């Protein structure tokens, strides 16, 4: 069963009106407190009853809330007021922008191949020309990118090749230096060997001469002794 809509109107009975006021006031303050907690909102309520009493609720401080409200209200009042002519101009500009946005969105859908059935032959030809021009521009841009990438790749290849040539040159110089050093050390070793062998040969020659000299002298003395000469 559908509940009937309650008509909101003034309660004529003062006693019933007072009871309803206290119930609704309590519920309103409760809802305000829940809202301030759930949504971290700063809330201030001021109620004047029909009897002239004042009831208030503040989530923080009623004074700070009123000061904040007064500051915001003053800032709003200080804003320059727009004349009726300015408002009309603004509305007209807004409408023009909306139409332009709608036209651009429709053109975008046509470029995507959508909603073409309602277009006339002339419009389709114009769209085809735009697509051809766009396709040519896309291809030209792709070719430009490919050329730039090819040029960059060639520069990198040439740089690497030049680095390899320089590396081979340095390696060749190092090998030549090592061979020269090795030959020099080998030559010094051969010289020392020849010097040592020559010294040994000379020592042997001197030894042979000394032995021969002593041997010859002994033979001479022996012969002289035998012959008496």
From TrEMBL:
Domain K-box residues, every copy: 87-177
Comp. bias regions, Polar residues: 188-198
Listed GO CC annotations: nucleus
SMART domains: MADS
GO molecular-function terms, A-Z: DNA-binding transcription factor activity; protein dimerization activity; RNA polymerase II transcription regulatory region sequence-specific DNA binding
BP term (GO), one: positive regulation of transcription by RNA polymerase II
Protein name: MADS-box transcription factor 23-like isoform X1
Organism: Punica granatum (Pomegranate)
